[in-house]
Amino acid sequence: MTDTQHITVATAWLDGCSGCHMSFLDIDERLFTLAQKVDIIYSPLVDAKELPESVDVGILEGSVSSEEDLKKAQEFRRHCKFLISLGDCAVCGNIPGMRNLFPLDAVLHRAYHENVQKNPQIPNVGVPRLLPTVQPVHGVVEVDLFVQGCPPPADVIWHVLSELIQGRTPDPMTLTRFGK
Ligand code: SF4
User: Fold this and answer.
1) pTM of this prediction?
2) Which CATH architecture has domain 7-98+133-174?
3) Is the dihedral of CA 47, 52, 30, 157 positive or negative?
4) Pocket flag, ligand 1, residue 97 (CB < 6 Å)
């Protein structure tokens, strides 16, 4: 951390529904307090296009399902001093991970041939290639903190960030659980 009063934060969503980011925004008026102590320097919530060289806290929502997700997770690990896996998709694969019950070819065939009536074809231009299986974030990079929940409640996200601002490592395990 740069100091215990002000931290830089980067967030990204991988294979997720954005619900964890919405829960982040649900901390409502506390966002004003947070804005005094946190600089969100890269996120779907801001305009920055490049992940800065060094970030205090990285937050990843969603599982690692594609080559693009893998690249993003690795980039966050390289650039972020402290990496948080936010939400059940990031922590355990959750809904995206359900496709692991079937081979990737069967999943693609089901989605783009069996359930399509007009011009069925598997998209391969301008879309990231899917990995053979879905991984939680810690399946591909080291993670420093896991925050369960689908999504994790806003109060828990607030607690985690507040503790980090104070220079303490939060323990969200007692405040949330899978699927909560
Ligand atoms: S954990 Fe739940 S809310 Fe978060 S990205 Fe996954 S499905 Fe959406």
Assistant:
1) 0.93
2) 3-Layer(aba) Sandwich (3.40)
3) positive
4) no
